Amino acid sequence: MLSVLRIVAALVFFAHGTQKILGFPASDMVPPAGSLPWIAGILELVGGALLILGLFTRPVAFVLSGQMAVAYWMAHAPQGPFPALNGGDAAILYCFVFLYLVFAGAGSWSLDAALAKGRTTA
After folding, report:
1. pLDDT at residue 14 is higher than 60
2. Where are the domains of the chain?
C-alpha cells in the first residue's frame, strides 16, 4: 500500500506540473519562465515523475514536502486561517504525504527497491 500511496499521490501531483509547464490539461495559468510558479511547476513535473517511478524517492520527497510547506505559507495562509477556506488543504496533504515518504521510502514497487535489490545480490 505504500507504493500505491506514492504512485497515486505522485500522479495527481505530476498533473499540476503538466498543467503549469506543458499546458495540459488546458489552463489559462501558464506562468512566465523563471517565476516562482514556473519553478514550482518544474518541481511538480520532474519530482512527480521521479516519485511515480520511485526513483530517488527520499530526497525528492524531502524537496517536494518543503515546496508544499512554502506554497501553503506563501499562497494560502495569507488568505485566512482555515485550510478548507483558503484553498490550502491539498498543499498540507501533499506536504505530509511527501514527508512520510522521506521516512518510509518508496515501497516495494519502485526503482529504488529494484536498485537496492540489485546491489545486495551482486
Report:
1. yes
2. 2-121
